Predict the 3D structure of the following.
Amino acid sequence: MISGQHEGKLVLELPDRDKRYNLAITDHRVFLDPEATYLVTGGMGGFGLNILAYLTRVGARHITLMDRDPNSVRDRAWIYRNSNLKYMDEEVDIDILQGDVQSLDDVQRCINECKRPIKGIFHLAGTLDDRSMTEMSAESVDKVFAPKALGAYNLHMASLHLSLDHFVMLSSTSSTLGNLGQVNYSAASAFLDGLASFRRNSGLPAFAFNMAAVAEVGMASRNTHVLRIMRANGIPPISCVLALNNLDYALRCMPDSDHLITALFNNVPWTFNSPDYMRLGYLISNQRFFEDSTGKQLSVATVVDHIMEKVAELCGHDEGAPDEPLSSYGMNSISVAELGAFLHGEYNVQVSALELMTTATCQSLAMTIVHGTESGFEQTTDTEFALPLEIDDKGHVQRNRKPSLFASPLEDHFGYDDCMLRDDL
Ligand SMILES: NC(=O)c1ccc[n+]([C@@H]2O[C@H](COP(=O)([O-])OP(=O)(O)OC[C@H]3O[C@@H](n4cnc5c(N)ncnc54)[C@H](OP(=O)(O)O)[C@@H]3O)[C@@H](O)[C@H]2O)c1
């Protein structure tokens, strides 16, 4: 499509297997113990029902759910009806035990009632009670902390004697990035992150999954206001499939990590000058800038490679030399627009579409990024946030920046000497 060879409409169809499971996991090997049980809290919620199918997919054959409803009207048939389990060939035993995770007695009793050895705990119980700081009350904090933070602590305490392979807690991006109106939820999620770290340091398994809002299922999907705020903050909701794939990746490939932030960043309003960007975006959203500013030399060769990598991704091929005009790669107007956005986002330069479609080469772009603006395109005209590049005595590229309002010791890590508190802002 990118090379403009197609005519008419394109219909993309998912492979059968992925469509059936609603999962797109490439490594299909099972890694959970079919003889053990996996204890899940919040398993009947929106994301919970999806995680049950996922756990089954990766080998679990016995799952025990804690249900806080004293009447327990939701049974195995209800779970099958409401989850992807109904599409799967694999059979799974599901035990539902009545118990509220915020009660240590309930948690201990449920753990004791499990018929098989517990090898994993997946803590998803949680609730929202969004409100502004001025309207925050002790009751609201308690309401949010009880299932999430106290629940996690109860599970931790009650399972200390068990030999677990997994202790997974559904945390949130709010714990690290914050979110408007969610100070109680952010703090409760941050507690999970801390508990994961504490358990790891104590030699116990633990993993906090810092998930962004999920678009189609769960608590955020039922709250359009939350989704809108997230979008406005440049963190759009993610799909359930992406969330599960990332969780799968973490469980398979990150045995030494205690958390993974799963989010997409899109048009973040944070700028290099804003306190938010310094605290968060610089570290999280733009690793390349971070590396540059911590002393890694930005060489023309590195930038050429980076741009060529992007061009290859946009054009669908990597045939072309650094000094060939980009126009000869077969770039179309869409890929040119994307490349322009990429250069702006990564290197803070504004290159016109005309230039990209006519004379620009990967080499010329890289030369200008590293050595200055002589070739006709400019550092961003967004003067407020412009970051002119300079080479320091050691040959390292430096980006000059206005001093910021909330300069903090964190900035020392960024290598800026000119940061200071400003009285005039
Ligand atoms: N969905 C998202 O966008 C998102 C993003 C980041 C993180 N998370 C986290 O992912 C987890 C699952 O979220 P979700 O979207 O599936 O939420 P959900 O649809 O609202 O489900 C929450 C589940 O937690 C259970 N729960 C609440 N309080 C409980 C308590 N005191 N004891 C036992 N269970 C309790 C609920 O039980 P009932 O069924 O009885 O109500 C429900 O099953 C939560 O921890 C959430 O914070 C979600």
User: Anything to note?
Assistant: Residues 18-25, 271-295, 374-389, 396-425 have pLDDT under 50 and may be disordered. The radius of gyration is 25 Å.
